[in-house]
Amino acid sequence: MTQRIVIAGSGFAGLWAALSAARAVAVAGRDGDVAITVVSPAPQLHIRPRLYEAVLEGMAPDLAALFEAVGVRHVSGVVTTIHAGRRAVDVTGTDGAEFTLPYDRFVLAAGSRLFTPPIPGLAEHAFNVDQLDSAHALDAHLKALAARPETAARNTVVVAGGGFSGIETAAEMPDRLRAILGADAKIRVVVVEQAPAIGPDLGPVPRPVIEQALAECGVEIVAGTAVAAIDAGGVTTSTGERIAAATVVWTAGARANPLAAQISGGHDRFGRVPADPFLRAVGSDGIFVAGDVARAATDDLGNVAAMSCQHALSLGRVAGHNAAAELVGLPTHPYSQPKYVTCLDLGPWGALFTEGWDRQVRLTRDEGKAVKREINTKWIYPPQPDRDAVFAIANPDYVIVP
């Protein structure tokens, strides 16, 4: 009797969960005994970490040939309900059809969504770079600014949120605006961050470098205040300051996909599901979690995986392997990812590369940019559809270390 692994999501974690599961089945000599199904709207990997960039071509590579090469089936749709007790998930297809998929093992790798609190005007007037269609909407809006009468508001962009995404978005924005409005346009780009300083989650060590880089790019930092309201003419901050702007980009954090809430047990403040060392959802038999829905320890020092592709790649490999290993009799593999790096794109200034959870600065400017370019154009993209080559890098302990 064929056993079934269902994976929700084809992002970084979902893709590598599928490839790693397929590898495990092949290693065990059980091809044909285990069916692996990925459910996502399309067989694509959206390169979400790059959606702050001006050029959006190539940001959704097709996975159909890759899935076919390793024997993974793709179903176009979204998982809507998890029935943990009877090991099945409800799916709504992209054609509107509703159906149920039974599973022996389920991997939730549905990613995260932009955090959108009930701020007046946020839904109506703000843009974001969270998803590919949102990035295209922002790009179209920016390009249309040239047809408007020149005003200070037209030439101003407010980026709400000074975390990783906000910093990268803001650093790119002056050059994007000049390319659209002209080299001599008097532009203004402002990052509004409610914490006392920019990059609160990045810590104090790299902050002087970030501040210097943003200043050289022409980006202002307004810290210690939050965006309280957004309208067609700009933003009002929690301290009462008014910033006139035709463009507001919301980048204030992410939350786990709502499907995570359907898995029993406590969740962290991001909505993530606690995972054991093998990435099983704690308290839910037959369910594994990976990527942005998983709260997983990376080491024995108390560090927890970040909501980033860096961790999603390994989380996916381990979750997919273990889901298959339990079915085909292979040893399961604990998740461990003690080496942590960050590479922050800082526009024309370059990039900042750090090592360790205390983010010690290792590379800056052009040297950092070279590493960022390698990450963004090679390391995070899917492999070619060659079964043997894929399986060579789909093992659960494979980690790309810059």
From TrEMBL:
Cofactor(s) the record lists: FAD
EC number: 1.6.-.-
Keyword DNA-binding: no
UniProt GO BP: aerobic electron transport chain
The keyword Repeat is annotated on this UniProt entry: no
Family: Belongs to the NADH dehydrogenase family.
Protein name: Enzyme
Native species: Azospirillum baldaniorum
